[in-house]
Structure formats: C-alpha cells, structure tokens
Design brief:
mainly beta, nine-stranded mixed sheet, 2% helix
Amino acid sequence: MEVLQRTANRGSVSTGNFEVGNSTAFDRTRTEYYTRNVSSAGSRTTGTISMWVKRGRGDLAQYLFTFGNTDNDDGRTFARFQADDSLRIMGGNTTWRQTSRVFRDFGAWYHIVIAFDTTQSTADNRIKLYVNGEQITEFRTKNNPSQNGNLGLAFQKQVIGYNSVDNNSPYDGNMCEIVIQDGVASAPTEFGEFSDTGQWIPIDPSGVTFGTNGAYLNFADSSTMGKDVSGTTVGNFTGTNLNSTDLSEDTCTNNFATWNYATGYLEGSATAFTGGNLIRQGGSSAYNACTGTIGINPYEGTAAWYWELEISSNNSGDGIEVGVGWISETVMLVGSHRAAQEVQPAGFMQWTSTDWSPPSSGTGAAGDIFGLHLQCHPTNPTFKWYKNDTLVFTDQTGNPHDISNDFYFPYVAVYNTSMEGIANFGNPIQEFAIASGNSDPNGFGTFEFTTKSGYALCSKNVAEYGG
C-alpha cells in the first residue's frame, strides 16, 4: 500500500466523524503569526492550550505560542521546538519542562496539549504535557512553579507562532484546531480520542469550557483567518504577514504530502527548506535534493496521482537548474543517489537506478509550472510530465525506461541558491500563486491546472485508492 513515511505517522489520518477543514501554513521567512491583546482579568494559575501541529524545518528554535508580554516567570509562558527538535516549556526565566523525546516526523501531525495548574499540591502536576493523547513524563529538564504561583496565562497578550517578546524564532509548518482555555486544566480527551484502530484523532472541542480569555481557532473563515469561534468576548486574533493563501487543506484529518525535511541529507544541504517544507532552495554551486512524504507504488491499483512544481528563476543550464520527477524508494535509500548524473535544465527525472540519467530535458522560465502525473496499472503504469499544462514527456515500462515494482516518491533537485523548487501537492502557499483553482476528482486540493483525473497526494485519497 502507499506510504506516509516509514516512521510512525501519529495523528495524521482521521477515521472519526469530526473533520478539520483548514490549517494555517506558516512560513518562517515571512515571520507569520497571530496575536491578540488580553485586557480583562483571567486566571494566572490555571489554563490549557491544545493545538495540532505539523512541523516544517527542524534544527531551529520555533515558537508554538507565547502568553504574556513581560519577561519573567509570572509574566510570560511559552512553548517552542528547540534546535535539537525537543520541546521546551518555559516561563520568562525558568525552563519548566524540556522533553527527552525529539519530534522529527516531518510528515506527521502531532497533537500537543499543555495543562497548567499551579494550585496543585503535587509539584509535578502543576504542568502536564500530552502528545497524541499520552502524557509525557520523561524530561531532560524539569522544574516546577511554586504552588499558587502566577504564570503568564490570560495576561497581556496571546501570540501563536512567534516569540513576541524578543521578536524572533517564528514557526515554520502548519497548525490547526487551536484551543485556549482560561481557568481550566484539561486532559487531552477534551480534544481527541483513540479510534478503533488505536490512532489518536481530533474531536469537536466547541463544547469545552473556554473561560474569560479562552479561544478556539478553526481557520474556517478565509476573510477573518484569526477568527475566535469560542464565543468569548476578547476578540479575534490578527494575522501578521498572513493572507488567505496560507489557509491550507493540509490538516490532522487529511494529511497532504510535503517535502520531507528528513531526506534533505540525500543530496546537498539538509537545511534549505522553507514554506512549511514546500520550498526547496538550491545549494551554493551544488544540488539540494529531497523527496516527498507520500510514496506510490505504480503497480498497485489503477488510480492516477498528480502534483505540481513551480520554478522560481530562469532555468537555462548556465548554473541554474532544477530537476523534478519521481524517485524509487530503493534508490532513495542508497543515500547520495544523484552521484555523477548530470541534471539538465528543467530535467525530468524518474530514477530507478543510481546510474541512470534523466530521460529528457528542456529549459524553463521563472513561474513555469511542471505537472507530474502517475497512472498506476498492474502491468503497465505510466509517468507523464507536463510543462504549463502541455505534455512534454511520457515514460512507460521499457519505453524508454523500466519502472520498478517499488514505491516512488516526488523528487526535486535544485542547483544554485537563486533557484527554488516550490511544490504544490494540493496545499499551495503564497509563493505558488494560483490563477485558476482546480481540485482533484474527490474535490481535494487546489492546483493551477486540471489534474487529468489524478488524485492529490493526501491521506484520504491514499486510504481510498491505495490499491
């Protein structure tokens, strides 16, 4: 069957009745975040935040939220991913918790719940962290606030995706179903449940107690992206550097493909990713390559699959190049799979061995969009490449190249720092400007061109048509 990475993809595909329609896609290079001021008094000792997050780039400090705006323990509370991919919960001065666990499944949705209650007599119960329904109890660093001590909860300011005190470390990736509770320390069962197959999935949180300064961001309103639908009177959140393009169908109930940050090591720099892992930058006089998070076996089933890639610069072969296509899992796991192959300008790739050159090439200009189409078939699958919706190359088994009975993943190799490969798996970002929206046959995704009966690479389609 199709693959949603080989690592455990916890919290990525919902099988329940509650469907999440949108997330916000944050791009750290644009410093995108939500914020609102809090004027009325709430609880300074007790509160909960619940959020579903899908990470973009690792290896950088990135803030999930900041509550309060005074840089001391009772005036500021925040959580962030560390550069080593652990999760840290802090006050202005003190690290309350830092996980031993690291979070490196860049194709997965994680459900994170942090419950604060300093009124608890047991010190370790004053801050509880849950991930995908399970309490985290192993920490490399653990400190506890004093009993009945104030924290930066329900105080001054609430910020999602940014360090608003020091003005740095914006988040990169997606978030959805953000719930803030004021005066309530909740268990994760207020926001999710285990399915019959043992997977942690979201439930409708609209009936929880929000308190005075609570909030519920479901990102359902493209005209007011930071709309608080909790019913409290604090007001909506204001988006900074965000627009409606940043509303994405990639959610914890329908997980879309992105570039897999964990495959950046295969060729070139492992860190040249932005846009929630939908942009791969070229290297300095070198190739940067990566694969997508969802793979397809061409010989399984009879469904067709489709995705797009836009190039950011003129692509003439004079030191600025991009190759786009598919790569088999066997070759991907070899490591430096490009080896001595020459990637021609806008080369079209579908590699099945480490010594096979790209099947064709052509020039490209900034803004050109390549469409990648795979028609699965038990004996004769077909790969097709389109350039601005014009068919430019077709590959079938033995004509001109063999196609392995293996999983194939979206692939890009980008040469030179002035070139970017901007993917659209149905979840476009600001850099991938859509002039005419087209969905797949199931109504999923937004593409520039028609999908030619191809399905978007997302978990719902994989579950239905995976063969």
